[in-house]
Specification:
single chain, alpha+beta, Phosphoribosyl-aminoimidazole Synthetase, Chain A, domain 2, 4-stranded mixed beta sheet, binds magnesium ion
Amino acid sequence: MASEFELIARYFNRAAPQGLLGVGDDCALFPAPAGEEVATSIDLLLEGRHFFSDVDPRALGHKSLAVNLSDLAAMGARPIGCVLGLALPRLDEAWLAAFAQGFHDLAAAHGCPLIGGDTTRSAHDIAISVTVFGSVPAATALRRAGARAGDDIWVSGELGAADIAYRLLDGQHPADPPLLAATRAALEWPEPQVALGLALRGIAHAAIDISDGLLQDLGHILAASGVGACLWYASLPAAAALDGLAEPRRRQALLGGGDVYQLCFTAPAARRADVAQAARQAGVRVTRVGEITAGPGLAVRDAEGRPLAGLPRGFDHFPAA
Ligand SMILES: [Mg+2]
């Protein structure tokens, strides 16, 4: 039987691309492109808290990297490479092989090779920590603080499906196999919008990836930028699977649902054609869902312009204007 080190090496040691020093020395080395800044981000995923114990390990490998690539996307940064920390209660080779497959497939798709890592034995649960490195030309990163009054608010892709799947799997709603089948991929196989982030450099004023829910993440842009916003509820790009669901559940999924990993960004109204062009270039749908206001607060309005009451909990610090 292979030793622990041999097993880990088998699944995680890949030859680094030319110009990078990857796994196998004390540190990984990579060149930072001249005139560019290095963007870096870390995420920590814990079994039972961030993922279910019985999740498909290939999907878990994919998502562990996807959530980090999504942070690079939100900054308009181009991926360089990543490092992985893995704590496992036992060495299960089939699990490890599938996890590595999901991880490496996404890494290859985005030119973000695994260039270092560490593994250790844990007492009970799996813990996964990924750090990504990317690069972005100096002073062009999409930051949270750049939104200005009058900006359009845009969202990429669709909203709501991941939240529906999460709550079904968590037992918060009665089992509904067709609904789970229609929403599960959004939760387990998020696609980071790296190409869109790159295409939005020089166009978007501010951006964030939606990890904790649209209201909460847009709230971070508003707080950092010192502005408010009005969202048009009827314009939100709801996943088709939400059709016919009871309104409170739909509203929670659209406004409060996390694990979306789409981009929410603001751009001047004069740049609408450029935003549309960037979206076409990236091959992703974008939807204009509101506007940035000078006054503080985040209002969500229905099709008749009335403020929506009963917003998902956790946003009381942004009272409706
Ligand atoms: Mg983020």
